[in-house]
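Hi R.,

Here's the input for the flavin-adenine dinucleotide complex you asked about:
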Amino acid sequence: MSEKFDLIVIGAGPGGYVAAIKAAKAGMNVAVVESIRVGGTCLNRGCIPAKAMIHASGLYREMLEEAELVGLSASNVSYDYSKIVEYKQGTTDELVGGIEALLEGNGVTRFEGKGTLQADRSVVVKLKDGGETVLEADKVLLAAGSVPSLIPIPGIDLKGVLTSDGVFSLTHKPESLVIIGGGVIGVEFATVFANLGSKVTIVEALPRILQNMDKEVSQNLKMIMKKSDVEIHTGASVKSIEQGGEGLIVNYEEKDKPAQATGQIVVCAAGRKPNLDGLFAEDVVIAMDGKFVDVNEKFETSMPGVYAIGDIINGVQLAHAASAHGICAVEIMNGEEPSLNLGAIPGCVYTDPEIAQVGITEADAKDAGTEVICGKFIMSANGKSLITHEERGFVKVVAKADSHEILGAQMMCARATDMIAEFTTAITNGLTVEQMLAGVRPHPTYNEGITEALEDCIGESTHTVPRRKR
Ligand code: FAD
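And here is the predicted structure with flavin-adenine dinucleotide in place:
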């Protein structure tokens, strides 16, 4: 006997659970199959736990380094790593509970177990508590997400070599760690452990950390992290890992010369791959786009009635992108036009200072032969940044030279990850520099930096205050 639904969603990460709730609200009878825990990578092993660790460790560093600057004295400042882990877990658990309640409140039927798509589009679920059930539906949405990928080098399987999943399970703070990969995940972990006083080394094969971000952003971050005693090697390719007397030794080649870095643990943050494990029955034939499930612009796979979204398809691997895919896919299933603009997905890095960008950079415009005007504001002249001693950083704006339509923005400053949404809205709605300037921003706020950068774009700076020497 099989149970019938309008839609079966495999995977309850930010792609799957948002799609399920959207579909249920649209009147569909929805089943969600989840093999580990509702919330997916994002809530359990990604965005939320990482940001909780960044928050706790950042607060500790601020208490040590900033308190005196504003006349506060804090003595015996310390931390208990197990309590930081508890706080991180509590935050995750609260959010997971909220999603479980939302799914239930919207009448979504949950199946706890591993879902496998069959050639006839039914889904066989191996239930966690034993047994098996078969689900059928007109439509199936694959939202199985991604898992960390390990680089194929000798020693990668040694005890103490962890992926991001393993880092969240640590019960003690490592005294030293080598992070393989200077992408978003790598630099965020470096931030956490450097804040807590660990000796951190990043080894990145590409010429710069955060290679996909604006060049100025990655150069500045490298300088700032070095000041926090993070050792960074770029253009450095890891060859092997071995057990040494004082920890794990990472052997790498930098500028054709062999070199070594030692850490109590090694974190492999060198990318993620789609989670295809057990997702398809052996006789399922489905088109792939390299290692990803291939979809068209309607999120349809090559199997009729089967859609795919989020980290399992080729594109940016971000939680809000997965959720946006989910919303659009359900709208498309119901014959509606997608309501979201997937062309302007902001990317954020929660380092100190934060980094965020959306749309194109000045270099992208140059490569594409698009004539642009650019504006920039250095945050050391922003009142709020002076108050909070967060003067490092800048806001950059890129707009079309003729129409002044906003094409992109890059920010490296306090609250950049919140402020970038102003530009996402602007790009999505085709707003111009002048239209963005028409709204009055409150004072004192970091957002005033946006006004300044926009004004600089059209040569009309008015507010700049003198910079304070520190
Ligand atoms: P996932 O979140 O991976 O969810 C997929 C779910 O499907 C999982 O729960 C899995 O158990 C389940 N599943 C898989 N196969 C099956 C099956 N056969 N049957 C049943 N269930 C199955 N993104 C951001 O936007 N902001 C951030 O700050 C950020 N920080 C990150 C930090 C780290 C350390 C990591 C690792 C990732 C981070 N990400 C961040 C990326 C973000 O977590 C992912 O892009 C996002 O979770 C992808 O959503 P998804 O729904 O596609 O897949």
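One thing worth noting: The pocket of flavin-adenine dinucleotide is lined by residues 10-16, 33-36, 40-42, 45-47, 50, 114-115, 143-146, 164, 185, 275, 278-279, 310-311, 317-320, 322 (CB under 6 Å).

Cheers,
M.
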